[in-house]
Design brief:
Two copies of one chain form a homodimer.
Chain A (H helix, E strand, L loop, with lengths): L12 H8 L3 H8 L7 H14 L5 H8 L4 E6 L6 H15 L3 E6 L4 H13 L4 E5 L5 H7 L5 E4 L7 E2 L3 H15 L4 E5 L8 H12 L9 E3 L4 H13 L6 E3 L3 H13 L9 E3 L16 E3 L2 H16 L13 E3 L16
Parallel strand pairs in A: 1-2, 1-3, 3-4, 4-5, 6-7, 6-8, 8-9
Antiparallel strand pairs in A: 10-11
Helix pairs in contact in A: 1-2, 1-3, 2-3, 5-12, 8-9, 10-11
Chain A binds a DNA duplex (16 and 16 nucleotides) through α2 and α4.
DNA sequence: TTGTAGGCGTTATCAA
DNA sequence: TTGATAACGCCTACAA
């Protein structure tokens, strides 16, 4: 077997220079549309470059420019539908600033997140966008000295864009209260280092109604189906199960509804379930999910703008994003028995 | 506002060399655990590097090595749950070969796919993994001269790993036949340049049973909710609607089931729906989905191995992956009225 | 309008 | 065991 074709040297500006009978520096100028080059020369070189299949070597460029025009996107779970709009917002805004996006999926593991950050650092990215990070606030504060970092959906770090993190959850709680629920379960996400705004909203809402916080009603979701199943089991074994549950996200909510049905418990007749995120499938399941719609696309756009400002020494304006919205569908309803007192 | 901290020069190998009173080349050797360096020196340098927060400059490395240790993953839609296991398989295998994965989401747009490829080319990746590409066979054949490219789930390109692409779909068709269906709808994906193995299996299965191919029963799904809705509408307006539908994938199937229910049509009582991929939620919806389970994780692993072989001039062994499996749940059943003849 | 020269950070090769 | 040197591909002064 002969040497594979791809071991052959790729064409560089020198090759083009030779072919065009000019100096490499002229090729550089021509390729970046510098005015300091004769139109005829520019066209000749452009033609040659296309013809010869020239692809610039980013490594060389990055080396001399000390930056790559790249932005690293560090996400914990790329298949969370939640991130689709985020990524779209980011990319749409990135093209406007001549920035390219590179994604690294950390699968929610802290050490992997660090590795991803280091890879991007080594790649000399112009900035990092980090939604829902695993690493500590301190880590990111220090990192911020090396490269601009903007967080999404986390508000304890130096630079972040987030919408009213508490508002969405408060809406859910209020909705459940209005339906007549008072014993409300809450499913947290994997214990992260952030401030857990949902949890905060949950407790605040409880307090405002004068309802005692009951740790038995708090569950933890790790992103897997099994986890949703387990939570459902625990929940039903309680002496006094909740009449409504505020799930961590829609995937969790959908899985719980299924697990409940498996055990003969109906939603929302026997128990109400509210989700979070409003993923594409949220309206398609049975019953359609009551959930919180989050402005991910706008958050994505804003994060790039924010990053751009940071990178250019401008004082970034406080980002403006829409408020989250409650989407009431059919997975929530009045409690079966109001204020049932045990005993 | 003073200059942001991140404009300050990062620490290089030279800085370490100076601090350790050695030559830069010694630092290089020490950092890569070369045996040709005194243990004491090695430790001293390692300590210094950690202390000073040294991050290697990949641009420089790539420049001299002419390769980056990076593999580009070009995916059409990162939020298709389908890709979760693929990516996991790829990453798990990549670490074994000291390869890092970078992802670029093309959102199913051909021009974006080309840009992604070019970015990776400029980045001097060691190889490309491209599941379900939009670009033509010819494009990839030419590209293959520049860099090793392995395709997943596409079998018309020079290098690919895929399992029995026809088998999974044949199983679905057989299952539907056995239930008594003969008028079976089929939902294609966005018309790609590939061979459409599902479509092929569909037609072959029909022929084998002596059933005429009816173009009215073929629909096209573009990935959106609206598309699933529209298909459902078209389907029901047919003079003689199908008694079963083989959906493009699970997302499509779930959305169609919902759209059918909205119109008062029950699944599987009135119509059977089979999906493809067996995503996490497939078993959680109502009714749980009959679908095809695809060995994505293994395909991911194999694609990296294949790439590695290619990059090292080895003749890649024909990759072995498990056969797809039919998962029979509750969205399929006997047709309501068997062999109803119109008129 | 174009060419010359030097350097970006790292590594491989050769010499010491 | 370590140091010196040249080179990777490109870009930016500066000179012509």
């Amino acid at each position: 077997m002969s040497k594979p074709a791809w071991e052959s040297r790729r064409v560089t500006i020198k090759d083009i220079a030779k072919a065009a009978n000019v100096d490499p520096s002229t090729v550089t100028r021509a390729l970046k549309d510098s005015p300091r080059v004769k139109p005829a020369t520019r066209e000749k070189i452009a033609g040659l470059a296309a013809e010869m299949g020239y692809v610039p070597n980013m490594a060389a460029r990055t080396l001399v420019n000390r930056k790559s025009g790249l932005v690293g996107l560090v996400i914990p779970d790329m298949t969370n539908p939640f991130f689709r709009d985020l990524a779209k917002g980011i990319e749409d805004e990135a093209v406007k600033h001549d920035l390219r996006i590179l994604i690294n999926d950390t699968r929610g593991v802290e050490s992997t997140e660090r590795e991803a950050v280091n890879l991007f650092l080594a790649l000399k990215v112009d900035g990092l966008i980090v939604p829902m990070a695993r690493c500590t606030q301190q880590y990111y504060e220090e990192l911020n000295a090396a490269v601009p970092v903007v967080h999404v959906n986390r508000d304890d770090t130096p630079h972040h864009v987030s919408c009213d993190t508490v508002e969405g959850s408060s809406l859910v709680m209020q909705h459940l209260f209005e339906l007549g629920h008072s014993r409300i379960g809450f499913v947290r996400g994997p214990a992260g280092p952030g401030r857990e705004p949902k949890m905060h909203a949950y407790r605040t809402a409880l307090e405002a109604r004068g309802i005692d916080y009951d740790p038995d009603l708090i569950f933890t979701f790790d992103g897997t189906l099994e986890s949703s199943n387990a939570i459902t089991g625990q929940l039903l074994e309680l002496d006094e199960p909740p009449t409504a549950v505020f799930a961590h996200n829609d995937v969790n909510a959908i899985a719980m509804i299924h697990a409940l049905r498996d055990r003969g418990v109906r939603v929302p007749d026997d128990i109400s379930i509210a989700g979070h995120d409003d993923i594409q499938l949220a309206g398609c399941v049975d019953p359609p999910l009551t959930t919180v719609q989050w402005p991910m696309y706008e958050l994505g756009q804003q994060s790039v703008r924010y990053l751009y400002s940071l990178g250019h020494g401008q004082d970034p304006r406080e980002p403006q994003v829409p408020q989250p919205k409650l989407v009431i569908r059919e997975s929530t309803g009045n409690p079966r028995v109001a204020r049932q007192v045990p005993g």
